[in-house]
Amino acid sequence: MLIILVAFLFLMSPSPVAAQQSSCADCHFADPRAPARDHLEDWDRSGHGRNRVGCEKCHGGNATTFESFLAHRGILNSANPASPVNRRNLPTTCGTCHAGPFAAFQKSTHFGLLKMGDERVPVCETCHGAVGAERPSPKALEGECRQCHGPRGVASRPERAQGARALYEGINESREMLAVAKPLIGRIADRTRKAQLEGMYQQAEVPLIQAVQAGHEFVYDNLTERLTTARQRIEALLGQLANPR
Questions:
Q1: H-type alpha helices, 83-157
Q2: How far apart are CA 57 and CA 49, in angstroms?
């Protein structure tokens, strides 16, 4: 009897995996009357959707129930100043997971203006979309910057927008160079040499990641420095691959 009781309790207990998964999206997908279908589908295609980062992580609510009233309890419209997805609160909400970009953004003039109530400044959604699914092209980024910093913008600094585009084009080019190196390293049979080159690859990748994070400061001195370091390391890596000793 004791064995049967233990087995029964085990079966009745939610598994750790099930407990971690959100039922919000499943319920909204099943209901054709659910609002914001485009938003839901964008989430499903995003990195958040693929990694089961559920709606409740940003919107609140109770993801453990399919009872509509209970599931939506505590959720506030984005227009509400207390909502975690209100424009003023969005960087803090995203920053609970994306700590590096948020720390950089807090150093920016934009963050200070946002806290003072300026609704024109960029927030996470401006560049990455409502569900964080987008990575803007350098050209698109320049267009966003020109909204305020173009010749007729509220803070006209056209060179800022042009400079941002050039830097992010440099980041993309560096990523492409690293992408060329990776399969070449994978083909090397000598384990010692392969380990050395893999170490060089990682050393080149780190400042590139740091450059992207530094870009969230919107003052690009740190980004430029890290990008320069990344390019030097990538060129050294490609030199080793092209001219083995």
A1: 90-95, 99-105, 109-115, 124-128, 138-149
A2: 12
> CA-CA distance, 150 to 155, in Å (whole number)?
8
Rounded Cα distance, 85 and 80, in Å: 9
Give the Cα-Cα-Cα angle 60, 61, 62 (nearest 5 degrees): 130
Buried b (16+ CB within 10 A) or exposed e, 97-136: ebeebbebbbebebbeebeeeeeebbbbbbbbbbbbbeee
Torsion sign, CA atoms 48, 53, 54, 57? negative
Q: What radius of gyration do the chain's Cα atoms show? A: 23
Q: How buried is residue 168: exposed, middle or buried, by Cβ count under 10 Å (0-12/13-18/19+)?
A: buried
| Residue whose C-alpha is closest to residue 224's, from 173, 163, 156, 146 | 163
CA pair distance 219, 174, nearest whole angstrom: 20
At residue 133, φ and ψ (nearest 5 deg) are: -90, -10
Note the pLDDT tens digit of each residue in 24-46. 988 999 988 888 889 999 999 99
**Tens digit of pLDDT for each residue in 41-72?**
999 999 999 988 999 999 999 988 888 899 99
How far is residue 90 CA from its own chain's centroid?
13
Contact between 204 and 178 (Cβ < 8 Å) = yes
| Phi-psi map region of 74: left, alpha, beta (phi>0 left; psi -120 to 50 alpha) | left
